[in-house]
Write a structure and sequence with these properties.
Blueprint (H helix, E strand, L loop, with lengths): L5 E6 L2 E5 L10 E6 L2 E5 L5 H10 L1 H4 L4 E5 L5 H4 L2 H6 L3 E5 H4 L5 H10 L4 H10 L14 E3 L2 E6 L2 E7 L9 E5 L4 E9 L11 H12 L5 E6 L5 H24 L3 H7 L14 H12 L8 H11 L10
Parallel strand pairs: 4-5, 5-6, 6-7, 11-12
Antiparallel strand pairs: 1-2, 2-3, 3-4, 8-9, 9-10, 10-11
Helix pairs in contact: 7-12, 8-9, 9-10, 9-11, 10-11
Bound molecules: zinc ion (ZN).
């Protein structure tokens, strides 16, 4: 299937809304239809992107309005459009752990980083500068769940399976059993680099193993083109490798920065956002010894930028 912006028809009344190139903030959404109604998976990073999507899916939703929204996790690029759906009367559903993080603080902290003068804020402006966070009022879910939840969408059964903490505390898979389709949220970055914000890595590997054991043909990832289990295996290989290499260096007494600098990513160094290695190593260190590393989000993002050779306009790395 071609990877272009907009609505992709997966058959069986299931769709994806894709946003190439799948990099920072360019997330995918999903649309699952039932009789006279539909369920939207995730709501994108700002109101303009969300409205653009709502206009773009009208060929489907005019006859089957969105009555339910599922947020796969709490990251802004999957929830900041919620208010547009809430205003139309849709019920928003998310895991308890995701809901706890869906606060206005999550917008304010990004806005604060974007305002940092000079080189400190340059990488954040580079990856997030084109989005309009100032317009966003974070809208938390109306309904929460833990573990599993089964939803009826116009006579169709949809399974929500919480697999977080992994990428974030509340990661949830959205499974459409009768279509053999899975909406994975950011448990899968198809063709990109996973970033372990919450961890531990082992739980993420368990989540990928769960997907590999499921009866699904197509996976709509949180970012990147529509995938199959091939991309799930590739992501699993990357996370297992980085997790093991980081642990070895921790055991040898290397600092997190020494570990980040010394891990050879091999062919994974060619992946987009390969600098996320920094957070992935830091997470392993924090899991092994919570006192070992204390970097705030900005410090982590700037380490990623440095690994990717990002140069500020002034030429200062
Ligand atoms: Zn995302």
């Amino acid at each position: 299937m071609t990877y272009r912006k907009g609505l992709a028809d997966l058959g069986s009344g299931c769709y994806a809304w894709l946003q190439p190139d799948g990099g920072w903030g360019l997330s995918n959404a999903g649309l699952i239809t039932g009789a006279g109604t539909s369920l939207l998976v995730d709501t994108l990073f700002d109101l303009r992107l969300a409205q653009d999507m709502l206009d773009g899916i009208r060929s489907v939703t005019d006859a089957r309005p969105v009555s339910t929204v599922v947020n796969t996790h709490s990251d802004g690029d999957h929830i900041f459009g919620n208010e547009l759906l809430a205003a139309k009367g849709a019920e928003i559903v998310a895991s308890v752990a995701a809901a706890e993080l869906m606060t206005q603080d999550s917008v304010d902290s990004v806005l604060e980083m974007l305002r940092l003068p000079g080189p400190d804020g340059d990488f954040v402006r580079h990856i997030f500068g084109s989005f309009r966070f100032d317009e966003v009022t974070v809208t938390p879910p109306h309904r929460t769940f833990e573990g599993h939840l089964s939803l009826d969408v116009g006579g169709r059964e949809i399974e929500l399976i919480q697999v977080g903490p992994a990428h974030t505390p509340g990661d949830t898979l959205v499974h459409v059993p009768d279509a053999r389709i899975l909406y994975s949220g950011d448990i899968l970055f198809s063709g990109g680099t996973p970033v372990v914000w919450a961890g531990p890595v082992e739980r993420w590997l368990d989540a990928l193993d769960l997907i590999l054991g499921m009866d699904v043909d197509h996976i709509v990832p949180g970012h990147g083109p529509i995938a199959t289990k091939t991309e799930v295996r590739a992501s699993r290989d990357y996370l297992a490798y980085v997790g093991e290499e980081a642990r070895k260096r921790f055991d040898k007494g290397l600092t997190a920065d020494e570990a980040i600098a010394s891990i050879d990513l091999g062919e994974w160094a060619a992946l987009p956002e390969h600098g996320r290695l920094a957070q992935n190593v830091i997470n392993v260190y924090q899991q092994l010894d919570p006192e070992s590393v204390r970097f705030d989000r900005l410090a982590v993002l700037n380490r990623m930028g440095a690994l990717e050779g990002f140069l500020t306009p002034e030429g200062i790395r």
